[in-house]
Protein: Isocitrate dehydrogenase (NAD) subunit gamma, mitochondrial
Amino acid sequence: MALRYTQRLLQTQVPFLTRGYPLLVTKEKGEDVAHTKSALQKKWTGVDIPSAQYGGRHAVTMLPGGGIGPELMHYIREIFRFVGAPVDFEVIEIDPSTEGNDDLDYAITSIKRNGVAIKGNIETKSQGLDEVSRNVAIRNELDLYVNVLHCRSYPGIPSRHKNIDVVLIRQNTDGEYAMLEHESVRGVVESMKVVTVENAERVARYAFEYARQNNRKKVTTIHKANIMKLSDGLFLEVAKNVHKEYPEIEHNNMIIDNTCMQLVSNPHQFDVMNMTNLYGTIVSNVICGLIGGAGLLSGANYGDHFAVFEPGTRNTGTAIAGKNIANPVAMINASADMLNHLGHKEHARVIYEATYETVVNDGIRTPDLGGTASSTDVVENILKILARKRVNWPQGQYRD
Ligand code: ATP
Structure:
């Protein structure tokens, strides 16, 4: 499996591995390429989504994954049923202990067919070289080149800082996740970090376009170009070039180690952050930790044609599975992000609001947030709030 999925990665990336690239090589690509400006605008105006079928309903692939994934997906289905969200789930279990890739292939085919998925984290059981992460394989196969995390503080949740509001834009398919490692001679292992102009530019353009569309003021590119002069140097250089098209937005850059320190001491200096894959996972975990842990924030993975929604920190939570203590909020937020993406904005809004009200106003919180509520207490409270808001739903309209 490892060979097949890494080969495919290289096929798409090798032409871009050299330095001295032509400026903004991907800018003039075809109309269907979402990182061109017009296509990104289409995405944010909600045009570039799979069309609904069968009476306005969308089919969505659901990958529960391992650990707490299946119980969280059960809550999502319950909430969607309750609010009448026009979504039919195609549930695909991926068992990491089975031989071969049939389940993974089937999941990828399903997402290609439906265009959209919601997922938990799929465990990688073996440390063997043949075994690649199925999470990474899905992102690579679907070319989900950007991961977006909107990190906002929840009032009242104990945390070191208040009012954090940072958007993290992470390159999601190459960098240190190329899964290209080998032992060159006995006792010497090499791991390839791949940075390509194409992907660095797509993610930088996404970050600047996001800033422009959402009235954000600054993009900070995170790197380690003082040490990784070619790879991170290229990532930074591409970001600086893309910035020239967005003169109204400030652009600065920061080294990853300093970024972690600055995040802990003064996170308010950040607005939109643009970074490679490994720095993205580190920074997202730091920010989620600052805001309240793994159970709150959602993350979205976008490519030109597909979108996959999941909890922001991508944890499996095996140790807390089946105990009714996992915080369901991150997965519920991910499901509302997905409804938003599909254009079901009213359904998304009521779910966001009921979840926020439960955690912030009603103080119904699981132990990871310092509360004593169970996962089902949280979900039941959300359903109770949703019931109050259902008054005018028979007409398909939500009114508060
Ligand atoms: P394991 O999957 O065996 O727990 P781990 O220690 O690597 O492995 P992760 O799954 O990476 O744990 O999760 C990191 C931490 O975040 C763990 O302490 C986990 O219990 C916690 N965590 C993850 N998701 C949630 C959640 N939804 N609610 C509460 N805690 C969570």
The domain at 1-43+159-291 is CATH 3.40.718.10 (Isopropylmalate Dehydrogenase).
